[in-house]
DNA sequence: GACCCTAGAGAACGAGCGTTCTCAACGCAA
DNA sequence: TTGCGTTGAGAACGCTCGTTCTCTAGGGTC
């Protein structure tokens, strides 16, 4: 096992455990056991837990945003595609809300590096929504962001595609109104 | 100091600390120091930390919901009043998102009693929104809930009244559309 | 005053945390 | 074969946590 493979295995274990059970609730020993990476190499690759936490969030951000961006890019109705993608995400059996908001709630006064990743993630999401709304509707991005976040939060407590569908309908209504307004 | 006063002081300290720094990040000793209640009485009133956590959430739920309900009850435009109330809440200097969602993110796999309070809180909020939407618009309650939650989450990362205003505008648009639909 | 129940202050306990250290096993150049 | 740097397994450390225990000091009641 080299450092790269160790890194991947550690991040896989960290993501599964941190997302499912919370960051503070999962100790380094659990991650060592689950990943099979020796403690010595763990601390060689990630010198402290904080580094592992930020790396977990960064990798998840990259994958999540790329996934969503891919689903939106090839769609005729980009805004609709966002909420379809959300509906599928909310239906995954291990869905437990937004990893970044969970981390923020837990570590709100914690290390600044973690909060930076959360903020960056949300800024990217807003940017993506502004593009999906299309030119001339950039002002809708903030309202779409509210709908996306709201649907995610509601789905965290009541899993399934319904919150995404309802938010999608609201988004379509707002879009139609904005379209009428600028016509 | 009798048990009642101890209880109040403990809940005051617990609410301030848990909400500001997270539940796991605050130890019982901090609460003892901040409240001035001796450890022995603390454990007499709340036999374990879990009891203190649930009591904190229950009391906050009662106060929060009553406050919002009061603001909505006397308003000519109940839905608008909800988002005005939110704008004021988001502008409080120590605002740090929804205490119940923060607790859920942190203790997602934790004690069931805590999750019950979170669920109950959100069910009450949805009920309140259904009443605010008025008879004939109960179906809007779920969309309003998404807007309220979304605004709260966005404001947690970017404090100030703006998210509430934007969500309020979106709500008004949805209401107007629904009004047109049933006319 | 003698007794007893209660309360306060804080030490103590066992467990778990993040992190570091020990030590034996191994790979491999000379 | 000898020596040496690196690795893995896990014990150990120092700390903090939630919780309990100890000891002392009142405060009534006879």
TrEMBL record, chains A, B:
Keywords: DNA-binding, Transcription, Transcription regulation. Residues 27-46 bind DNA. Gene3D superfamilies: Tetracycline Repressor, domain 2 (1.10.357.10). SUPFAM superfamilies: Homeodomain-like, Tetracyclin repressor-like, C-terminal domain. Residues 4-64 form the HTH tetR-type domain. Pfam families: TetR_N. This is TetR/AcrR family transcriptional regulator.
């Amino acid at each position: 096992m080299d450092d790269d493979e160790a890194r991947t295995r550690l991040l896989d274990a960290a993501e599964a455990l941190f997302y499912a059970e919370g960051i503070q609730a999962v100790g380094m020993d659990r991650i060592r056991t689950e990943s099979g990476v020796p403690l010595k190499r763990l601390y060689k690759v990630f010198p402290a837990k904080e580094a592992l936490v930020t790396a977990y969030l960064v990798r998840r951000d990259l994958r999540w945003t790329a996934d969503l961006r891919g689903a939106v890019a090839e769609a005729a109705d980009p805004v609709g595609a966002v909420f379809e993608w959300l509906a599928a995400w909310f239906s995954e059996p291990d869905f437990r809300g937004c990893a970044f908001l969970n981390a923020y709630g837990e570590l709100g006064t914690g290390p600044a590096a973690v909060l930076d990743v959360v903020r960056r993630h949300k800024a990217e999401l807003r940017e993506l929504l502004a593009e999906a709304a299309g030119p001339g509707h950039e002002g809708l991005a903030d309202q779409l962001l509210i709908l996306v976040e709201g649907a995610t939060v509601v789905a965290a407590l009541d899993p399934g595609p319904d919150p995404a569908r309802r938010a999608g309908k609201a988004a379509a209504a707002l879009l139609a109104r904005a379209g009428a307004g600028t016509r």
